[in-house]
């Protein structure tokens, strides 16, 4: 096998989003939940830690291989909220459902997941009360009991 050869970066297709406004998150089982997105973090994709495949036959380098499975990572939202949100969180927390992120360019990413927690931030005079909502993607269809990829739908 040959040694790795340098590659040349080319201009990517598509258009980079120019602004994060207006990004929204929808929970299928409570589309009108009582929060207003202020900061939306997109989930990441994690290939996992490397697998150490070094043996006593290696002579100079420890060697590693990649894993086979991916993780759609947990993410947070910073939100303004109505205190009635506490009742809604009790209904939605740990409920596996479809979660949809609307990106600022009108693309959507839909996946199975659930609301993990709501943490209220400090409240003080002269500042709008905010909180943090944490969402965990599962990639598991709770109705049909099968693994499902996230679905990216590009805007027309």
Task: Note down, in words, how this protein is organized.
With 156 residues, the protein is mainly β. It has a domain at 24-47 and 75-153: Elongation Factor Tu (Ef-tu), domain 3. Helices cover 5% and strands 38% of the residues. The protein contains 1 helix and 13 strands; from the N terminus they run E-E-E-E-E-E-E-H-E-E-E-E-E-E. Strands 1, 2, 7, 8, 9, 10 and 13 form a 7-stranded antiparallel beta sheet that branches. A hairpin with a 4-residue loop joins strand 11 (140-141) and strand 12 (146-147). The N and C termini lie far apart (44 Å). The model has no long low-confidence stretch (mean pLDDT 97).
Please outline what is shown here:
The chain is mainly β and 156 residues long. 5% of the residues lie in helices and 38% in strands.
Task: From the structure above, extract its key features.
single chain, 156 residues, mainly beta, Elongation Factor Tu (Ef-tu), domain 3, two-stranded antiparallel ribbon
The helix fraction, in percent, is under 10%
How would you characterize the largest beta sheet?
7 strands, antiparallel
Oligomeric status of the shown chains? single chain
Number of helices: 1
CATH topology of the domain at 24-47 and 75-153: Elongation Factor Tu (Ef-tu), domain 3
SSE blueprint:
Elements: E1 24-27, E2 35-40, E3 45-46, E4 51-52, E5 64-65, E6 71-72, E7 75-81, H1 85-92, E8 97-102, E9 108-120, E10 130-137, E11 140-141, E12 146-147, E13 151-153
Antiparallel strand pairs: 1-8, 2-7, 3-6, 4-5, 7-10, 8-9, 9-10, 9-13, 11-12
């Amino acid at each position: 096998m040959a040694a790795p050869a340098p590659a040349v970066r080319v201009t990517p297709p598509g258009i980079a989003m120019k602004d994060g406004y207006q990004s929204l998150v929808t929970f299928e089982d409570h589309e009108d939940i009582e929060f207003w997105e202020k900061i939306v973090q997109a989930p990441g994709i994690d290939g996992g830690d490397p697998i150490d495949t070094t043996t006593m036959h290696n002579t100079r380098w420890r060697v590693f291989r990649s894993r086979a499975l991916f993780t759609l990572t947990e993410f947070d939202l910073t939100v303004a909220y109505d205190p009635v949100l506490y009742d809604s969180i009790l209904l939605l927390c740990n409920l596996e459902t479809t979660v949809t992120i609307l990106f600022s360019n009108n693309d959507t990413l839909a996946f199975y997941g659930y609301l993990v927690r709501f943490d209220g931030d400090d409240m003080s005079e002269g500042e709008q009360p905010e909180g943090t909502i944490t969402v965990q993607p599962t990639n598991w269809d709770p109705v049909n009991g099968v693994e499902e990829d996230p679905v990216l739908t590009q805007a027309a």
